[in-house]
Write a structure and sequence with these properties.
single chain; 240 residues; alpha+beta; four-stranded mixed β-sheet; 24% strand
Length: 240
């Protein structure tokens, strides 16, 4: 008698190859797209190593305030000095732009940035940087802003208020930068800052809460406007 032989289905594809698994994930039930994400690597803070005599005095604790440096007439050449004395400073990009120049080799393009730094409690610095890359220009401007930090004397110079809180300037000040002239007038508590958008933000970084301002000249040019504001606020400390 003839016996029937049942043929079993071949496992895999042709020529004994394993059948492709479309839409299947790796063994263990995990999907192919759900790979474990790498933990985000946080940038390491650079350890400041002082390179100047003033930096060594600040690092050792011999000098503990920015006002002491100004009274001694010393020059700050390291941004780490300001970061050590004022660790609560905040940096903010005020303005960015493009500088185009025609040379013999063609047109060259560079970026410029203006950065303001302050702690919203009596300190403000403004710096400018230029580079072929925007990131490097912002870094240069930030470093220059730290080197230009100046103390600001806050008070209440308004005859309508006459309180003892430090919410405005102690007296009327006027500063100039390029073609821009800015005047800051003391205001009573609760009025707020009567100023434009970027000018208002710079005054907030300095620590002012109430003030009237008047501006003349090409105020959209932030390079001149920021210099005029810093010139105004410097006078509160030098004359006060």
């Amino acid at each position: 008698m003839s016996q029937k032989v049942e043929s079993k289905p071949q496992q895999g594809g042709p020529r004994g190859k394993a059948a492709p698994t479309y839409g299947r994930g790796p063994p263990g039930g995990a999907k192919g797209g759900d790979r474990p994400r790498r933990p985000r690597r946080e940038p390491e803070e650079e350890v400041w190593v002082p390179k100047t005599i003033l930096g060594q005095k600040v690092a050792s604790g011999e000098i503990s305030s920015l006002e002491e440096i100004i009274e001694l007439g010393l020059r700050i050449q390291e941004a780490g000095i300001i970061k050590k004395l004022l660790p609560d400073l905040k940096s903010e990009v005020v303005d960015v732009g493009i500088i185009q120049k025609m040379t013999s080799n063609g047109q060259s393009t560079r970026f410029k940035a203006i950065v303001a730094t302050g702690n919203e409690n009596g300190y403000l610095g403004i710096g400018q940087g230029k580079s072929k890359q925007m990131r490097i220009a912002i870094e240069k401007a930030t470093n220059a802003a730290y080197l230009n930090v100046n103390p600001i004397k806050l008070g209440c110079g308004s005859w309508e208020c006459r309180c003892d809180q430090k919410h405005s300037v102690p007296f009327k000040v006027k500063g100039k930068g390029g073609s821009v002239t800015i005047e800051i007038i003391p205001a009573p508590r609760g009025l707020g800052l009567v100023a434009g958008g970027k000018i208002k933000r710079l005054l907030e970084l300095a620590g002012l809460k109430d003030a009237w301002t008047t501006a003349k000249g090409s105020t959209p040019t932030m390079n001149s406007t920021s210099k005029a504001i810093l010139d105004c606020l410097r006078q509160t400390f030098s004359q006060g």
